[in-house]
Amino acid sequence: MTTDTSRTARKRIHLAAHFPGVNSTTVWTDPRSKSQIDFSSFEALARTAERGKFDFFFLAEGLRLREHKGLIHDLDVVGRPESLTVLSALAAVTDRLGLAATVNATFNEPYELARRLATLDHLSAGRAAWNVVTSSDAFTGENFRRGGYLDRADRYTRAAEFVATARELWDSWTPPAPGAPYGTPRPFAHSGRQFEIEGEFTVPRSPQGHPVVIQAGDSEEGREFAASAADVIFTRHGTLEAGREFYADTKSRLAKYGRDPDDLKIMPGVTVVLGDSDAEAQERAAGIRRQQVSPQNAILALEQVWGRDLSAYDPDGPLPGIDPDPDSALVQGRVRIGDPLAVAAKWRALSEAKGLSIRQTVIETTARQSFIGTPEGVAESLDTFVRTGAADGFILVPHLTPGGLDDFVDRVVPLLQERGAFRTEYEGATLRSHLGLPAPEWKGSAA
Fold this sequence. Notes:
The chain has 447 residues and is α/β, with parallel strands linked by helices. The chain folds into 2 domains: 14-275 and 369-435, Luciferase-like domain (TIM Barrel); 294-366, no CATH class. 37% of the residues lie in helices and 14% in strands. Strand 10 (232-235), helix 7 (240-252) and strand 11 (265-270) form a beta-alpha-beta unit. The chain is globular, with a radius of gyration of 22 Å. The N and C termini lie far apart (59 Å). GO terms for molecular function: monooxygenase activity; oxidoreductase activity, acting on paired donors, with incorporation or reduction of molecular oxygen. Belongs to the NtaA/SnaA/DszA monooxygenase family. This is FMNH2-utilizing oxygenase. Keywords: Flavoprotein, FMN, Monooxygenase, Oxidoreductase.
């Protein structure tokens, strides 16, 4: 354990909570697992995150129920509620916790979404955040009037202009006069390749100026977009070395946009498994992996790569000898895992080298925990990632709804606080203050 206990020189960790939902991380067979749609689940997890002094609560998005062999995917059968509606309700039962909604920039329009986000920022007294995502998926596009989809190359072009337009709208009211709570609306006009709009925005500038903008993605386009327009990047990397490489690369891009390195917080999504000893934690982690990848889920994961009906294969038997179908439409609404032929070759090599069955191979390659160990060991590892430039913080993705954060908040957060690596109390009221982000310049917008 580190002996550095300085509270002033130490870099502080940022923490956020991801609500577990329709994904393979969540263990729905556990008797402690509750509803993914009842408000009580959202409220319970959010209250735990706020008790732990987390920066924000994070909701994912799904714009269409995924399909497998023409049937609704098992994990989607209960559906997904709309994020901003849920967070508006949570604003009434939390006081300081940031509220982050994932909303697609491909299938929304700037005026409507900017208005909804600004409203949430007012309702929550400055705690709103927008996780900007894009889609090049024609399957999802079928749910929308515009139909079709954007070419992959155009996704970030639209997203960048979307964010810029939203910020113009948030800035379009005049600053308030002395003693007045709000300014006055003034006309806005935006003319660009993606949007041609003008009018007057209906919501005054919100308590933190602009809602915090989060961007999710590790691609080259995603990194550049985050450097130019985002306040937080939600990423993933499995090792300390990979984290440092991503961190250095992404931070190095900020200067060209006139931004400082601290203007963008890098927060990978992680999972944590705790035990009273390292051996107990490893045993628990292995049990969770087996729950996440049931025999049925193993075949589903295999079909996602192979693009073929593999229901006749034994999950405890060897991998298929046939090659994947790279043009398959067997799975709709889910991203195939990389290049199918390359992934299959990698999985076969691993299976042969270790003598793994289909299920064991899927467990080895897709179900993993980021931090496994005692509370002291996990606190040390999290602190090391941040102190050595691999992350600014973490978005925790628990495997249970809604009690999956309880152990972390009760057993790890106090240790981080003792180190001076994490706050003991909220020091501000807005999400920007929690994250240490600068207030946005009031540029204004006029027709």
